[in-house]
Amino acid sequence: MPSPILISLDAMGGDHGPSVVVGGVRDYRARHGGEGVRFLLHGDEAAIRAEMAKCGLGEDVCEVRHTDKVVAMDEKPAQAMRRGKGSSVWNAIEAVKTGEAAAVVSAGNTGALMAISKLLLRMSAPGLERPAIVASWPTFKGITAVLDVGANVESDAAQLVEFAIMGEAFMAAVHGVDKPTVGLLNVGSEDMKGHEEVREAARLLREGGFNLDYRGFVEGDDIAKGTVDVVVTDGFTGNIALKTAEGVAKFIGTLMKEALTSSLMAKAGAALAYPALKAMSAKIDPNAINGGPLLGLNGIVVKSHGGATAAGFGSAIRIAVDLGRSDYMTKVGTSLQRLTAVLEHPPASPAADMETSQ
Amino acid sequence: MPSPILISLDAMGGDHGPSVVVGGVRDYRARHGGEGVRFLLHGDEAAIRAEMAKCGLGEDVCEVRHTDKVVAMDEKPAQAMRRGKGSSVWNAIEAVKTGEAAAVVSAGNTGALMAISKLLLRMSAPGLERPAIVASWPTFKGITAVLDVGANVESDAAQLVEFAIMGEAFMAAVHGVDKPTVGLLNVGSEDMKGHEEVREAARLLREGGFNLDYRGFVEGDDIAKGTVDVVVTDGFTGNIALKTAEGVAKFIGTLMKEALTSSLMAKAGAALAYPALKAMSAKIDPNAINGGPLLGLNGIVVKSHGGATAAGFGSAIRIAVDLGRSDYMTKVGTSLQRLTAVLEHPPASPAADMETSQ
């Protein structure tokens, strides 16, 4: 029997609040059984209890902690930090800080979640300004983790190595990959390509003794190919790559819908092909891969998309449970200590690595 | 009647050599008339003449300049510069240098084309290490130009402004947009987002008096939305965004093909919807948007994809002709002078712009 675990939920976050959060608990249990998993729900008690009744969930699964206070979706992070104390997201994170809960999930304001998590839990990866966000990206081979897709706009070599360490441990813990392969996102695969940070990170990954299966540089199209299990990049490039990809997927999806409704014949064809097309779109359904952990904190924090459905929120819960039950935190802790040691006594830099980019 | 123009072609470049290059001339003339447009083809005379005969093209349209020498697709740029003299790509570029031809098109080795173009033509934009490559990106609203998708790995604020100037002139000359709108690619739309280079570039574009319709920061998903006509970014991010998008498009296309051949019923549906699906895929056909100009040189150089079809090479020729006949070079020249003046006497930097990124 799996070990008991308590997951803290911000029941008021996201576009739909308690209906999606409590619905997410039901959906998670329906799909994954959820043996030994209990939940701590923070927010409006009456609203949460009404949803629990609808979903047939009792006190044995969901404990409710009332608060009236909510951080709005458009509140600035600095404001949320000043005024957010006692809000549903604040209390949900605090339950992880005190050790009561093993992980927290919120579909609320990303900036506020980051800022309050950092304030309450503190960074465990010393070089990071902000938590790194990892995206689970559907590929020809399954799922590839891409990070940072968040807000570490300028990432130096040490930060890129931290992303590699955390991303690898994430893939092992959540996607069950035995020895995940790691690549650094670059504009070419030759050693001398790219800027200094990415070349220095490559050297540290090759020579630092992190016990990672580092495979070298990968390019943008390697993400969807699934060339490696973990694609590491700075938060600027990663954020732009992710949003560009979402834009392209939406564009093609819209063109396809338009095409398949453009004539009677096309509509008839679409009806016949419907089961096949539905099975296909399940493979790239954003709700199936919803849930981006904020890595680099002393505690597990998972961000759900604000517009996620109950099924989507259930996916985010799954990630929180799998991370919480795994040895992710210990494993990352050990590797980050190793990184600190390497940075204090760096391996000698061979001349070949100092060549200018081409 | 349009003014007469001579276009220089590297007939040996690309995966298919003269068949696609000469076929491209035929295709260009079939689609665009090509009145007043003549071609100078560099490469193996016998092979070129054989293709000309097949395509029904005579001396009045195509002049052949024989050379045996070819730069291989996998030759390193430095090697191509040392040993490339007299090759088809070298001679094709030289015809632009001497003023004989108005523009050159090659489907050959990108690195070699860049290096030899830079050597023979020299950069006109003083801050650039290498020519910037612009991609014509299909969007909900038509075409958006994205640059640099090439090799200027670290682009400072002045370079980003150069990309904006050149991209805007390109959209006006080639895609017939009257007053193209310009955006800077970033991780958010607020003023304080992103790294220093992109924030400083925003300030220069707002205050530098370049007569550009600058619309501020855009995000990755704004590319496919067509939010602006020109998206400006450094060569690292741009290259990764483009290749990531290509990977995603290919992934979705493959899933769709698999779905539509997965069962008899799906196949029947696909057959009925075939005309609609074909019309749709024409909208994102890479050959229809083939041709990436190398901007920032004293001369017009257009890179065709190495694997392009004759129709694709014809699209690249179209871009070369439109750029060659437009006031692109003069317009960019004037704006780059303005940039030099602004950099020598920069507008005062308001405190708001100096805030750290968020």
From TrEMBL, chains A, B:
Task: Give the UniProt family note.
Answer: Belongs to the PlsX family.
**Name of the protein in its database record:** Phosphate acyltransferase
Tell me the leader sequence span: none
Q: How does it assemble?
A: Homodimer. Probably interacts with PlsY.
- Organism classification: Bacteria, Pseudomonadati, Pseudomonadota, Alphaproteobacteria, Caulobacterales
The cross-references to PANTHER family, in alphabetical order and at most eight, read:
FATTY ACID/PHOSPHOLIPID SYNTHESIS PROTEIN PLSX, PHOSPHATE ACYLTRANSFERASE
Does this entry carry the keyword Lipid metabolism? yes
The record's InterPro entries line, in alphabetical order, gives: FA_synthesis (IPR003664), Phospholipid_synth_PlsX-like (IPR012281)
Record keywords: Acyltransferase, Cytoplasm, Lipid biosynthesis, Lipid metabolism, Phospholipid biosynthesis, Phospholipid metabolism, Transferase
Query: Which molecular function term from Gene Ontology is one that the record holds?
Result: acyltransferase activity
Give the highest taxon in the source lineage: Bacteria
Question: What EC number(s) has UniProt assigned to this enzyme?
Answer: 2.3.1.274
Gene of this entry:
plsX
Instruction: List where this protein forms a coiled coil.
Output: none
The metabolic or biological pathway listed in the UniProt record of this protein is: Lipid metabolism; phospholipid metabolism
| Function according to Swiss-Prot or TrEMBL | Catalyzes the reversible formation of acyl-phosphate (acyl-PO(4)) from acyl-[acyl-carrier-protein] (acyl-ACP). This enzyme utilizes acyl-ACP as fatty acyl donor, but not acyl-CoA.
- Places the protein is found: Cytoplasm
What is catalyzed by this enzyme?
a fatty acyl-[ACP] + phosphate = an acyl phosphate + holo-[ACP]
